[in-house]
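Complex record, two chains
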Amino acid sequence: MAVIETTPPRDGFAFGTGTIISAVIGALAGFVIMIVVGVTLGLITGAFSAPPAGAAGLAGLIMGAFLGASPPVTRSSNRTRLIAAVFLVIVHLIATFAMPFGLPTNIVPVWQVMALVVFAVLTTIGTSLMIADLPSGQVSRYMAEAAFIRTMKGLGFVIFTVMVALPFYVMVMTSLKNQAQLLANPLDLSISFAGGFEGLFSSYIELFTQFNFGRYLLVSFVVSTATVLLTLLFSIPGAYAVARLRFTGRQAFARSILLIYMVPAIVLVIPLYAVFSQLGLRNSLIGLLIVYPATTVPVALYMLKGYFEGIPAELEEAGLMDGLTRLGVIIKITLPLALPALASVSLYVFMIAWNEFLFAFMFLDDPSIFTLSRGVVSLNSSEVPRQHLMAGAVVATVPVLIVFLWLERFLVTGLTAGSVKG
Amino acid sequence: MRKREAKLAFSMLLPTALIVILVVLGPLVANFWISVKPVELADLRAPTALITERFRGDAEAVGDEVELEYRIRNSSPNQPVLDAAFTDTIPDGLRITGLDPRCSLSGQALSCILGELEGGFRERFRLQAEVTQAFLDTPADVRASEPSITGSGVNVLTSLDFTWENFRRVFSASEFWSVLRVTIYYTVFSTGGALIVGLFAAQLMNTAFKGRGILRGLFLFPYVAPVIAVTFTWLILLDPFSGTINAMLVEMGLIDGPINFFGTREVDISVFGLTFGFPVALSTVIAFEAWRYFPLSFLFILAAMQSVSSDMYEAAEMDGATPLQQFWYLSLPQLVGILSVLFLLRFIWTFNKFDDIFLLTGGAAGTRTLTVQVYEQGFALSNLGAGAAVAVVVFFLLLAFALVFFRFSPKEGGA
């Protein structure tokens, strides 16, 4: 500790390893952000061109070097960032011969300017965040690794967000197009108001008027909600018994529940198909309402059991002392305390039932009792244009996403606490 | 007291046990049964005898000759109907003149005993009758009284016909081993992919920042959205003719022509002079699986990371450990437990998965796994027995995995 490191002056510009690392980080940021911004611009406006990522990398390199050379204390000030951004834009414009996105300037000029601003802001702020307090000159291993991790995280955010959001974006945008537009330019995912409201949502209007989607939506809601109720009805007493009551074979039972959850649906489908066909249950919602709860009860029981075990037994014993029956204890004490668990189990079961494909596909032939999953699959034919298929996908996705976002915190805690599958 | 508690417990568990036995364990056993039976999809409709009635001839005057015709057939082309018989009511005013020897008449009630109808049986069964005045006075509709026929078909599911043919077909087909190989590749790489991507995502989210809640919600979308929605979206996104990704890659000059991601079995790639076939469709399916299921491992890993106390990191920081060292020597060892449990659970679940591949490729282009093979044999080729035989293979492999799982899982249930 006695050795005092020679630190570069903190108030002036300095060059060294830190500057080089900063330049590399800046180049990487410029390169990646140009691709993302350029592609986004192309998809939004329909004027697609390969984004000049190389030029942007060069601009980022110079900008990063400037930021890295400037003293760490002033790096996060708006003035330095503004200068860096201006640097970036100028170098980029020179390197691309004033075509910042590879597009002629007279095409969608307003969008191009906006995209350029977004690119400059994201790249500058991103780079300065990733560089953070990296010294301009000599860099310790700790500092270098920290900068490396920040850079990886920055890239990670961009890549993950694009990876997750792109398919959903394409799904929604495709559903708002018409056949001619899709064939003319598959890269044009802009929203066109030329046809007015009806033109924009024509696929949805057709789905609900000609393809009976209103009914599928209703059937899906009924089936999913009924599955949730039936599952709770079966699993609450079961979970309570396994969690609280002493009986021989309790451990074995708890374990076999989890084992049953690992039985794949595809192994059950042939016997169930055969037997349900002969009993006349196959092409009916009753059949689905027998199969769905049976497949969800084990996992619901397991999740609830975990939660019930966490509720202090003393509370229930007090209730028993006061003259409540077991049933009274469950209804008046245990269930109110277990509300979060009930919410997460309900949401999870609802999601499973809503998204279920295999049994709905195998069992249902009659279009008047199709669930949404089954209905969307029936759109997958060469006669139905694909914007209808995507509109169907959106219709199937939106309700379950709404329910999910509404109850997300319950699902997250419930899933991780109960330790379940996918 | 103890006994009463046990009794209560059993009564509370009874409904669950019943529905699980009926819908899960029962079919599991039934699979073994069906797998050794020569049963086709068409055999599910048990053969039944069908009858329709016709009235032939004109009834205009007393003494006119008319005919009652019963058309009888067996619905099944190859299975017999046993003990077939039918009854009908002859309309008032028709006097039967020619009675088939198999029939008997008491009053106006006709009953005929047909015996066994072999597969594909068809017969026109005629009775002559004479019109009387009563019929002309009140011309009854002859078809008003429906004939009713009885007979028991042999139910192929409950018969005692057994065969090893299904298993012989499953194992002797040369594709079995390639299906098995694809299944193993698919399961191992999809599971590993989802875990690694999830680990990265958890690393990203393990620091507090503005908008973390929103981003976490977004990251869960692939897992929450219905499988039909995301599979069709990927299909359209990667479509070789009008898919966004292909158009984008071509536009950027990264590829020469569109790639049929879900339809290309293999592409030869040479690295350092070594040429090997790269399975395109299978890799795309694996990428899809990693995309769709990383949220789950992400959630679990994040939860595990957040339960690690920060003291350790502070101590490591004091000792001068660099960030990568902290990750390697502190974070990873803490996560080994959850990672291995996740791997085993996900492994089994990926192995079980049917919907995703079925919807993406239908098992074409070298992506047919065992679960898709169950469907292919049972329903696409209409051979339920063979499908069940594949399902039995699936079950035994799964049993082996589950044994491994319970061998390595912590003693006090679950993760």
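Note: Chain B touches chain A through 101 residues (CB under 8 Å).
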